[in-house]
Design goal:
The chain has about 700 residues and is an alpha+beta fold. It contains 16 helices and 21 strands. Strands 14, 15, 16, 17, 18, 19, 20 and 21 form an 8-stranded mixed sheet that branches. A 6-stranded antiparallel sheet has the order 5-2-6-11-8-9. One of its GO terms (molecular function) is adenylate cyclase activity.
């Protein structure tokens, strides 16, 4: 287990080094020779692909399908009246040539791009939206040689990856529409889209038709972008490249794999902890909180994935459910850590209730927000609440540092907090921060792995505990019947003792002293163990507690820790069966009949039962006058018979269930009045 934790810590250390050092040196470069990088800024600040940007929408050129033959129509595009935009053409003519800004950094949203004098081009998004209706165009020329197709791409089937564009886009290659998200080939100029058509976090992959690629000549890639709200509008903080379709499919599979990994892992962890809760930890709530948190982590990851777009096509509701599941996830995980750390400070509990209340309010407010802008702004500021909760967990983790597995869980939580901080800073696009990539997937995966390691450790510890409990049960099974033993293991026994009605049995082997004097110790011990083994089995069969062996005597009682209405009946029935069993024991030992006989006394009455003794040495036993009376009955009894007190006789049902050969009154030591005794010979069956 220690090696697993060290391996995980080493993995985290390597991950952070790669994330914050390598990213700062390479500026998020993809380390492969299989792509054509389209970003305007590459490693070490070196300029890359040259782009131009033009605010506003394009002049429209209306064009009908070039063929009337339905067999020649592209069912996806040509069946719809296509719109040709001047900004998408290979050569710009007329007014389309004016207003382009060169050197536009596509890694930065257009409301943050500065000119050569350090002034922001479009400082006020509202002004931009009123003037340009939220539209903008990106344009670049891409040269792909035959050698590139042969050695770099190794395919003529190419795909352009444009990452996560905010908030809708349409893409043109050499004037041909090749795909769009929110915007399509028939979306008229200056159309203000509804919020459900805005997909800020969807990763764009668009295939380039084979016939549209001009080798050894400039190819024009034009992107029409619409942003309704100032939420990182345009192409920003992501990877942009051209690759073979096979390579892009692998990239899509990897993105989906990360999400599916987190979804499957969190669902498994949540289900496992629910099972764990109902199996072992019924009085502990930490596992419930983690299970619910895992479920909402899976939901949140699903609604961040590209998979969700094949299920839902409403970007607004996708973001609502994603944000709502995140709020619930954070609050359940916060409660999980508080419960897991076993923190009992009053102010933390009060703060926890306040945080829970705020989370519930935030959850319902989120669904009431009218548009994507308010939704995103609300969640952005609420993210700082997440960070504060995360930082407060550091103190809670410190308080619960002695809890088993707390170290492993805390490493995962702290790693997740740091990686989520990266996403917040990337979203804000501060120039001093080198990263341009969201890493929430790795944050979730890292936390899930840390909890998985915690589960492994808990399973190992639980296995040891189960083995220890088995050993304890084996030890207890020597003294208690299985039913009584389970009661002792599962229920708490009141320390110090309590008054109960107890049926007590004492038995003594008559003739064993003489046998001991005439035989070697080994033979004596073997015979005694054989007798005790047989009688103990019978005592356990009648659900008694075997108190102790006293020389060649046995003490057992009924009524504790589990009490029934048949305790006296079972005690007398057991005593009668013990007398019958002694006949067979003599035969099994190969001694003459009557060599070993039993004197048995049974009494019923109030006694003190519980853990009696000292702190260092306690016995679960019974004491009191009723117990002493049973011992006196045994000593005044008749060998081969069962002496039953009147109290036990009546409690067992009297002559309705018991048959006796005689009754007499005996004067017992410590008793002022004679005690009526029945010598029971038979016990009739009784329905339970």
């Amino acid at each position: 287990m220690v090696s697993l934790q060290r391996l995980f810590l080493s993995f985290l250390a390597f991950g952070f080094t790669s994330l914050f050092v390598t990213q700062s040196l390479s500026a998020q470069i993809v380390f492969t020779g299989s792509i054509l990088d389209l970003r305007s800024e590459k490693a070490f600040g070196q300029p890359g692909q040259k782009w131009s940007f033009r605010p506003g929408d394009s002049q429209l050129l209306l064009e009908k399908p070039k063929t009337t033959n339905q067999d020649d129509l592209d069912p996806e595009y040509d069946s719809v009246e296509s719109l040709r935009f001047a900004n998408a053409e290979n050569s710009l003519e007329g007014v389309a040539r004016n207003g382009w800004i060169s050197g536009f950094a596509i890694q930065t949203s257009w409301d943050k791009v500065k000119d050569g004098d350090g002034e922001i081009y479009f400082p006020d998004f509202r002004d931009y939206f009123e003037k340009y209706k939220g539209y903008g165009w990106y344009r670049t020329e891409v040269i792909i040689s035959d050698e590139d197709l042969k050695s770099k791409f190794r395919s003529r089937y190419l795909t352009v990856r444009l990452g996560q564009i905010s908030q809708a886009d349409a893409v043109y290659w050499n004037g041909k529409f090749i795909g769009g998200t929110g915007l399509y080939l028939d979306t008229p100029p200056d159309t203000v889209l509804e919020d459900k058509s805005l997909f800020a976090d969807k990763t764009r992959f668009y295939r380039i038709p084979v016939g549209q690629v001009d080798t050894n000549a400039p190819n024009v890639l034009a992107i029409r972008v619409f942003a309704k709200y100032p939420l990182s509008p345009g192409l920003s903080h992501d990877k942009f490249y051209i690759s073979s379709q096979r390579y892009s499919e692998r990239a899509e599979y990897w993105n989906d794999f990360k999400k599916i990994f987190v979804i499957v892992l969190t669902v498994i962890l949540g289900s496992f902890y629910l099972y764990w809760q109902f199996l072992f930890r019924k009085d502990e709530h930490a596992t419930i909180y983690f299970s619910l948190g895992s479920i909402f982590m899976a939901v949140n990851t699903l609604f961040q994935s590209q998979i969700i777009y094949s299920i839902l096509n409403d970007g607004f509701w996708i973001k609502k459910i994603e944000y709502a599941s995140w709020i619930l996830l954070v609050h359940f995980l916060f409660n999980f850590v508080v419960q897991f750390a076993k923190v009992h400070k009053g102010w933390i509990r009060k703060a926890n209730r306040i945080v829970d209340t705020l989370g519930i309010v935030a959850f319902f407010v989120l669904f009431a927000l009218p548009n994507l802008y308010f939704l995103s702004q609300f969640f952005f500021y609420w993210s700082f609440v997440t960070v504060l909760l995360g930082l407060s967990l550091c103190y809670i983790i410190f308080l619960g540092r002695k809890v088993p597995s707390m170290g492993t869980v805390s490493v995962g939580i702290l790693a997740m907090i740091l990686l989520l901080l990266n996403d917040i800073v990337v979203e804000m696009q501060w120039e001093w921060y080198p990263s341009q990539t969201f890493v929430k997937d790795y944050a979730f995966a890292g936390f899930s792995v840390s909890v998985g390691l915690s589960i492994i450790r808990n399973m190992v510890e639980s296995r040891k505990l189960v083995e220890k409990q088995k050993e304890e049960k084996m030890r207890l099974s020597r003294y208690f019947s299985p039913a009584v033993m389970e009661t002792i293991v599962n229920d708490s026994i009141k320390l110090g003792g309590e008054e109960r009605d107890i049926a007590t049995l004492f038995s003594d082997i008559v003739g064993f002293t003489t046998f001991s004097e005439q035989n070697p110790p080994a033979v004596v011990l073997a015979n005694l163990n054989t007798i005790f083994e047989s009688l103990s089995e019978l005592i356990f069969h009648y659900s008694a507690t075997l108190d102790k062996f006293i020389g060649d005597a046995i003490m057992a009682f009924w009524g504790a820790p589990k009490k029934t209405d048949l305790d006296a009946y079972h005690a007398i029935a057991c005593a009668v069966e013990m007398q019958k069993r002694m006949i067979k024991i003599n035969e099994d030992l190969g001694v003459p009949p009557g060599t070993f006989r039993l004197r048995i006394g049974v009494n019923f009455g109030e006694a003190i039962v519980g853990n009696i003794g000292s702190v260092k040495r306690m016995d679960y036993t019974v004491i009191g006058d009723a117990v002493n009376t049973a011992a006196r009955l045994e000593s005044h009894g008749v060998p081969g018979k069962v002496a039953v007190s009147e109290a036990a006789y009546l409690a067992a049902g009297g002559d309705r269930y018991l048959r006796y050969e005689e009754s007499r009154e005996l004067t017992l030591k410590g008793k002022a009045e004679p005690v009526k005794v029945y010598f029971v010979t038979e016990v009739l069956p009784r329905s339970f």
